[in-house]
Amino acid sequence: MTLPRLALPLLRLVLLCCVLLAWEILPRAGAIDSELVPPFTDVLRTLGTLLARPQLQTDLAVTALEIVVAFAIAVPFGAVLGLVIAESRYLSLVFDPLLFFLFSIPKSIFLPMFILTLGIGFWQKVGFGCFSSTLLVLLSAQAAVRSVQPEHLLIARTYGATPFQLVTRVYLPSMLPILLEAMRIAVIFTFTAVILAEMYASRSGIGHEIETWGENFMMRQLLAGVLLIAVAAIGMNEAIRRVEQWCGAWRT
Amino acid sequence: MVRCMADVIQHPASAARAAGAAGSIQVTGLSHAYASGGGPMEALADIDFTVGTGRFVVIVGPSGCGKSSLLMMLAGLRQQTAGSILCGNRPVTGPDPDRIGVVFQDANLFPWLTALDNVAFPLALRRVKPAERRRRALDMLRMVGLENFAARHPHELSGGMRQRVSIARGLVQDPPVLLMDEPFAALDEQTRMTMGEELLRIWAATRKTVVFVTHSLQEAVFLADEVLVMSARPGRIIDRIEVDLPRPRTYAMMAELHFARLRDRIWQHIRSSHAL
Fold first, then answer.
1. Could you tell me which residues come within 8 angstroms of residue B105 by beta carbon, excluding any fewer than 6 positions away?
2. Tens digit of each residue's pLDDT (9 = 90 or more) over B86-121
């Protein structure tokens, strides 16, 4: 059975509405403990109230800044390192297995170490955020360089490309799709790491607020915070994915 | 020197044109050996030939005879170990896109560029202005019959179309010489035949000097003014055959006895070189 084009998004929307409806009705009807899961509209109203508060706005700004700074450090650093290692056969042979092992270690176990060395301020969260995503960017940069086809370099050489032109006209366009995808995932990793660090030990940031609400059993605020972050994360992901799609339309 | 004299005696008119002409190619004493596990491996041995301006020369030989390596050296993409290559009386030491265009077996188009931008690529490297290079690229696409596909990406084109874009790219800088390394080998037979006719049409219109490498004997006789037959490794030129079929060539000629005789002569040479 072939579905018309609009059917699929419509189906998804209907599914979402069903879930939200359940979230609204079941707590009100008493089928779910409304202390544990407040109804959806209650949560929305709480979210509205929270967003109006300057304290929360500051928290959101702090978290956003931490993520941006961590990302801005991790991406160039990881990318350059990845490129250098990939371009050197010797370095590749030495480092590839080590990097692979490092990647498999869960980064969250290092959080206490970051707190001991960097405290619980802004830079500790930035540091941990960087730490969590640098390796990913590095590995992706390697993969991106290795994806450049030698035949394309041959063509560029045949038509007299300078080394600079090789980089700008062959390497970069070839590598762009993989790099964009790496950046999208790096944003997720950084986001996760910063929020985790804030939840674990922090005096500011949205992660800290969520942790506080959770501890004090303030379910409306907690769910409001969860909702907010979920929407923000999905929004960021989608934005980068759109850029990826537009840049990588030729990748079939 | 004896070889050059022999060439002059064979085709005096073209040799006279060849002397000092921009599109001529002169290969003298070319040999190539490379290091391998079992000692130095001789790939090419003592190759001498001259290609006059505007001539269509086909190099044919068995797989592994070094004909593609020879073409890479003519293009300046590989260095030979001995001997000299002159193009337009200037030595070939590296890629020279102004004088030599190259078409490889795989079109190797950049997938992130449209057909037009792929053809314009050599011009973009030379910093030609966008409007100018678009115009010239479109002219080339028109010549290969693909002006309606200028905005398409390579993945939207068939194998034959991609190869035509590659040919357009090779011609966009209007080089006097075009080198082609088995450009139709990856295509099916029917497309090969169509492309062969297309190529001769383009060559008749532009009068480039063409050196075409293939291992199809039929293709060699159909396309060439002169066929250079190479032996198996180490590659030497074991025969030079002047193809005196009239132009424009048609596929009907393949049914003629003369065509079959020429093809057979090439085959006999290659077979006997295998036996050595």
1. B181, B182, B183, B185, B186
2. 998 888 888 988 899 999 999 899 999 999 999 999
Helix axis angle, A219-247 relative to A40-52, nearest 10°? 80
pLDDT for A6 equals: 78
- Put simply, the answer to whether B96 touches A250 (Cβ < 8 Å) is no
**Whether ipTM exceeds 0.90:** no
Is it the case that residue A249 has pLDDT exceeding 90?
no
H/E element holding B171? helix B159-171
- Cα angle, residue B54 at apex, residues B49 and B57 outer, rounded to 5°: 45
Q: At A202, is the pLDDT very low, low, confident or very high (cuts 50, 70, 90)?
A: confident
Q: Which residues in chain A touch residue B154, judged by CB atoms under 8 angstroms apart?
A: 250
pLDDT band at B15 (very low <50, low <70, confident <90, very high): very low
Interchain proximity B153–A249, CB inside 8 Å: yes
B177 neighbors B204 (Cβ within 8 angstroms): no
In this structure, CATH architecture of domain A39-251 = Orthogonal Bundle (1.10)
What's this model's pTM, rounded to 2 decimal places? Answer: 0.77
Q: Tell me the nearest-neighbour CA distance from B235 into chain A, angstroms.
A: 24
Chain A's closest residue to B153, CA to CA, is A250
CA gap B78, B72 in Å, rounded:
6
Confidence of residue B200 (pLDDT cuts 50, 70, 90): very high
Q: Name the amino acid, one letter, at A75.
A: V
The pLDDT tens digits for A94-116 are 998 999 898 899 988 999 999 89
Task: Identify any residues that bridge with B214 across adjacent strands, giving them in sequence order.
Answer: B60
Cα–Cα dist A247/B10, whole Å: 57
Closest-CA residue of chain A to B172: A159
Nearest residue of chain B to residue A158 (CA atoms): B95
Mutate to test the interface with A, among B108, B153, B181 (most CBs of A within 10 A): B108
Query: CB neighbours (10 Å) of residue A169?
Result: 21
Q: How many CB atoms lie within 10 A of CB B96?
A: 18
Would you call A251 and B111 a contact, using CB atoms and an 8 Å cutoff? yes
A192 Cβ contact partners less than 8 Å away, ≥ 6 residues apart: A132
Sign of CA dihedral A48, A53, A58, A63: negative
Contact B125 A158 (CB under 8 A): no
> Exposed, middle or buried: residue A15 (CB in 10 Å: 0-12, 13-18, 19+)?
exposed
- CA A107 to chain B, closest CA, distance in angstroms equals 36
Given pLDDT bands bounded at 50, 70 and 90, which one contains residue B1? very low
